[in-house]
Amino acid sequence: MPTSTIAQIEAAIRALEEDRYAAMASGDIDAFVALAHPDLAYTHSNAVTDTLDSYQEKLRSGYYVYHRIDHPIDRIITSGDTAVVVGEMHADITAGGTRKTLANKALAVWVRENDRWLLLAYQPTVLPEPN
Question: Residue 121 burial (CB < 10 Å; 0-12/13-18/19+)?
């Protein structure tokens, strides 16, 4: 894959990550769903994994409310029609009525189908407490 193509893919994925987190932070569930693959596996830092249907149901019911999200990206790895985003996700959320602050390393997997990139999987890992 030529360097310019890799750079273009990385730029597109960075923009999609921005759109995804902006949709979550603003409560625009329809925008999030439009970015997600129908077979989405969305794992939370408590190890619960949602499907696209169960996650959007939780978002629509107010189970998850995102107040602030920061998501620095360390790197994007591409292979064919798959892109893996390696980074972090720091957020203030309400989950099940409890306000929480999250500090996670995170992997997001995007796949290209019919010339569209869609979020297929997300997996955070809680960062250890500083010593």
Answer: middle
**In 3D, which of 120, 109, 117, 107 has the Cα closest to residue 52?**
120
Return all residues near 109 (Cβ < 8 A) that are at least 6 apart: 82, 83, 84, 85, 119, 120, 121, 122
Neighbours of 89 (CB within 10 A): 21
- Please write the tens of the pLDDT for every residue from 31-83: 999 999 999 999 999 999 999 999 999 999 999 999 999 999 999 999 999 99
What is the chain's Cα-based Rg? 15
* 26-53 as b/e: b if 16+ CB within 10 A: eeebeebbebbbeebbbbbbeeeebebe
Looking at residue 82, its pLDDT comes to: 97
